[in-house]
Amino acid sequence: MSRSGVSARPPAGLRSVRTPLLIAGALLCAAGAILIAQAERSVFGRVPILDEVWYLDRAAELTGAAPRDPVAEPYFMSPLYPVLIAATGAGGGVPADRVFDGGALRGLRAFQWALWLGTAVLLAALAARAA
Question: Long-range contacts of range 40-49, CB-CB < 8 Å, 24 or more positions apart?
Fold first, then answer.
């Protein structure tokens, strides 16, 4: 216990689930790496459809890989997702043949997987705190 009377140790409920959380996190990271590799080889992960094309085109406009039209109308889809795509290095636009090289979207997929893992960790911490 510190001088302020606040313990530096995590709550007992969180301590009891720390090791299982670490093991689950390691397994989920391994699963994520496997799924990302499979997505890079699969036609479903290499050919964008529907809203994916719109988001990738907007990201290309942000990175300068495509000409940018001035926004004359309100957004009808999430306006920040193209910024995320561009920030993760996947903002090169959709290829002319609409088929991506396997690794072109790897940064975006890895970042999304990390967000999913972070959500799982937060939910587990909340569940341990509530127990």
Answer: 40/102, 40/103, 40/105, 40/106, 41/102, 45/100, 45/105, 46/99, 46/100, 46/101, 46/102, 47/98, 47/99, 47/100, 48/94, 48/98, 48/100
